[in-house]
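Working notes for the structural subgroup meeting. M.R. asked for a predicted model of this chain before we commit to crystallization trials. I am recording the input and output together here so anyone reviewing the notebook later can reproduce the run.

Input as submitted:
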Amino acid sequence: MKITAIRTLVGNAELRNWVFVKVETDQDGRYGWGEATLEWKTRAVVGCVEDLAPLVVGLDPRDIENAVRTMTKHGFWKLGVIGRSAIAGIEQALWDIFGKSVGLPVWRLLGGKTRDRVPVYTHLGLGNMRAVYDQKERSQLRDYVQEVLGKGYRAFKVLFPLFMHYTADSKAIAGIDGWMRTLREAAGDDIEIMVDFHGKPASVALAVQCIEALAPYRPMFAEEPVQPGDANAMRMVSDRTRVPIATGERLIDRRDFEELCMQRAVAIVQPDLCHCGGIWEGRKIAAMAETAMMGVAPHNPLGPIAGVSALHFDVATPNFVIQEEMVGAVPWYGEVVQGPIRMVDGCWQLPQAPGLGIEVDERVAAKHPFRQEPFASRDAVLPDGTVVDW
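Returned structure, recorded in token form:
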């Protein structure tokens, strides 16, 4: 079997443009799908897939490690997040082909199941762009929480509501306490709540101060309390708070996770299988984390193929904790990709179809062509005009 062509399909899902990657082979009807979605970099990723395709056309799609090494090493220039995302989309499609060729779901090829179901969490607002980035009004928060619970979820993540710099006054800290208290009271004690800081605090001291304001309400973890890429800072935060710390969505291969693991800097790592180079690289990251006594909770607010790829990864990964998803991102989420995702009691069920077990309706995607994504970051400016992280 040989790879004959690689092409992309873009569908606009409001907050993101989903980038689907199709790998075709010389066997009639044998192809695979992957996802390479990267926010605000859609055209660059599509171009990078086109640039990488000549390196792997003619290779056996089942030699996945070899194909990834070829794309990584024979392109000469070191790849950043655009290149790693392009590789991830191709790599996932190769797993899809491999599974179909032997009649087995991808999780079987990754070593078999390590669990019978996959706990998941969604975002407050269920993927609605305005809801995700506007979660300050407390009456609105209660409505969002009830909407999530009404869909059967047992866990959700909320975006930290304040833009920050190096310090915060007592009024801001009190506001954080009231905000988190509202969420906990609305959700009850049995629902898991995660808080994503997006690296907004510009100092370790402020990050710890904010997390400790959340601590009485028992968040499952605090995500990216400082900007990613600084393992020392993450370790300093972890050492100073009782709340588990998570990071990793903006790290793009296992070398980026190495220092985190060596320092035992966080409790949970969050590789994104669409950004770190694919499913197999994600498994290598998870193995490093397991050795360091760290769990893995893959990042994924992306499209339906990304979700299914994560599902197969989660089934086979022993130190998996919980899976992020955004199934409610657009009303046609389940129309463009028919797949095995089925939630029961807050958990995805095990897929059984060969490969990833998906079919893509290209006609549905064509109804939602590329459109420039909105820049939520435009609001990340302090009253004095200082531009800050968002």
